[in-house]
Write a structure and sequence with these properties.
TIM Barrel; two-stranded antiparallel sheet; binds coproporphyrinogen I
């Protein structure tokens, strides 16, 4: 029996391969619109104001920590801080329902030339500031995650100018002007890498790269466009943190990309709900794996959620006694998710795995 670990030890140990008393648990988008406290803050303040005011970003990041015994908090920010800081004026319609809008979509070389690289990290300084403020308010024995958008997903929003089902403009650009796409990806990677390093400096234990739209690409295109940019980020983070800063990559819809993802240079993979756990483990025996409960399972009642968690814990224990495993969802929590289902999920991990 492994002695009881603190939440932060559990999170950090899931990257060393040491034995765990149980897997750590946190949830993508754990601070957000399914929580009444978050909705109350947003009724009073714009989305960017919440991100840029440390007292507010810490308050909303701590709300799920107070409600559920989660092992780690995540900095309250957004992946679209990077295009906004590059001068593309990202806005969210009120309530966020219609998704983000990017002021100047990238369609030609002149659009890329207009990106404002001078002092870009100064315009992003509110993110590490939010991380440091949250770290100071969070109990010392809980973990803290930082994050950034993966370059390809950031390219999707900057080229299409907002959300989309298929990101036609982005994928057309890859085919028509691959040099422009690569130049933009390399700039996005450099800015995201510095942002992640700044979050480590501010006290984050682990960072996650969100490649929400990476699954739209074929293997060949992912290898050609997405992976080199991810590799640039992980190389930079490894050098900056002297190998201490751990990185997780989440690729939504990335089942077909699984054989390639070791080349991203990350320490862990966050699996989406359609990716079979055991298949990922067979392909990546040395990586930390995180996931992968369907966020929609949380709408099907506490008994269903508990059964899903038990099945996942069995899969986790089947190899290497559950080392290198983190429980999470297979994508972000959906608005409208019942809080009691979230409570059941976390409780089943905390009590059920003992
Ligand atoms: O607890 C947390 O995780 C909150 C911090 C967080 C994170 C990790 C937010 C706050 N956003 C994100 C990541 C993020 N943002 C991703 C990657 C994860 C994912 O796929 O879910 C993506 C794609 C975005 C882009 C984004 N920002 C969208 C989706 C647009 C689309 O393409 O459909 C939206 C609606 C936002 C705004 C946003 N960011 C975060 C919140 C809580 C919100 C809702 C804004 C509101 O309050 O109305």
């Amino acid at each position: 029996m492994t002695p009881t670990l603190s939440s932060r030890q559990r999170l950090l140990r899931s990257f060393t391969g040491e034995p765990l008393d149980r897997p750590a648990v946190w949830l993508m988008r754990q601070a957000g619109r399914y929580l009444s406290g978050y909705r109350a803050v947003r009724a009073q303040h714009g989305f960017w104001d919440v991100c840029k005011t440390p007292a507010l970003s810490t308050q909303v990041a701590l709300e799920p920590m107070a409600l559920f015994p989660l092992d780690a908090a995540i900095v309250f920010s957004d992946i679209l801080v990077v295009p906004d800081a590059l001068g593309l004026s990202v806005s969210f319609s009120s309530g966020g329902g219609d998704g983000p809008r990017v002021g100047r979509p990238l369609r030609a070389r002149a659009d890329l030339d207009a990106w404002q690289l001078d002092d870009v990290q100064a315009r992003l300084a509110f993110v590490p500031r939010a991380a440091a403020h949250l770290r100071a308010a969070l109990p010392a024995d809980r973990g803290l995650l930082g994050f950034a958008g993966a370059p390809f997903t950031l390219l999707c929003y900057t080229v299409d100018g907002g959300s989309s089902d298929d990101f036609v403009h982005t994928r057309t650009l890859l085919a028509r002007d691959p040099g422009l796409a690569e130049a933009a990806l390399s700039t996005l990677a450099a800015v995201a890498a510095d942002l992640l390093c700044a979050q480590f400096d501010a006290g984050c234990d682990v960072v996650q790269l969100f490649d929400t739209w990476g699954g739209l690409l074929t293997r060949d295109d992912y290898a050609r466009f997405a992976l080199p940019a991810l590799r640039a980020i992980t190389d930079r983070v490894r050098a900056h943190t002297k190998g201490q800063g751990k990185t997780i990559l989440f690729v939504r819809g990335g089942h077909h990309l699984l054989p390639l993802l070791g080349e991203a240079g990350v320490d862990g993979l966050s699996l989406d709900w359609r990716t079979p756990w055991r298949e990922a483990r067979t392909l990546h025996p040395r990586l930390t794996l995180q996931g992968n409960i369907d966020p929609v399972a949380l709408f099907a009642g506490a008994d269903h959620v508990r059964a899903r968690v038990r099945a996942l814990l069995r899969d986790m224990r089947a190899d290497d006694d559950g080392r290198r495993c983190i429980v999470n969802l297979g994508h972000g929590i959906l608005p409208g998710t019942p809080e009691d289902a979230v409570a059941a999920l976390v409780d089943e991990v905390v009590r059920g795995a003992g």
